[in-house]
Write a structure and sequence with these properties.
This protein is mainly β and 200 residues long. It has a single domain, classed as YVTN repeat-like/Quinoprotein amine dehydrogenase (Methylamine Dehydrogenase, Chain H). It has two helices and 16 strands. Keywords: Repeat, WD repeat.
């Protein structure tokens, strides 16, 4: 299957502009237009117009490596804003309005770098989960004594079980909202958001 994919695939676009390693990318559609955003160790967050094959914004507010970038569908659907969230080694998480070229919000005062970020797949993406160099998945869970570099949030549904019994990665507490975190302790852990407990 991989060979079939490789032989039939073709390069569509190449975006050039970062001056150092690209650490994170995300893709979304706003107002019928396709966009990609990127975060880099050149400390910038950039936005690319996929349809027109060009960079449309560059945000230079971070003072350290940008580790993760995500488009926010919550801001788009609820406030008609075109927003990117970014996490950085400068110990901040920032929200950028790329349509109006401005920073909307900054979370700072933290003692460690922020790494992976993820918007919730429930409540329209209203909640943001993020991992930090202080070994916590905020604001609920501790991942042993190691840095947390990546994460994902999912709803695990056990449709074959109306009694909400736990399956192998299970539904605890009934809602099935989970966080999966990856760390430099060489483990991947799955957590139940409602109970803040790790699945066994």
């Amino acid at each position: 299957m991989f060979e079939t994919f490789r032989s039939s695939s073709k390069l569509i676009n190449t975006f050039i502009g970062h001056t150092d390693t690209v650490r994170s990318i995300d893709y979304s559609t706003f107002d019928g237009c396709q966009f990609t955003c990127s975060g880099s160790t050149d400390n910038t967050v950039r936005v690319w117009d996929v349809d027109n094959n060009k960079q449309i914004q560059s945000f230079n507010g971070h003072l350290g490596n940008v580790y993760c970038v995500k488009f926010s569908l919550y801001y788009y659907h609820n406030y008609c804003q075109h927003v990117i969230c970014s996490s950085s080694a400068d110990k901040t998480i920032r929200f950028w309005d790329f349509k109006h070229n401005k920073q909307l919000q900054k979370f700072n005062g933290h003692l460690n770098s922020f790494y992976g970020i993820e918007f919730s797949p429930f409540n329209g993406g209203r909640y943001l989960c993020f991992g930090s160099g202080d070994k916590f998945v905020y604001g609920m869970l501790k991942h042993q004594n190691h840095y947390i570099f990546s994460m994902d949030m999912k709803i695990i549904n056990n449709n074959n079980d109306n009694n909400n019994k736990m399956n192998n990665i299970g539904v605890i507490g009934g809602n099935g909202y989970t966080i999966c975190s990856g760390s430099d302790d060489k483990t991947i852990r799955i957590w139940d958001i409602e109970t803040t407990k790790q699945f066994n």
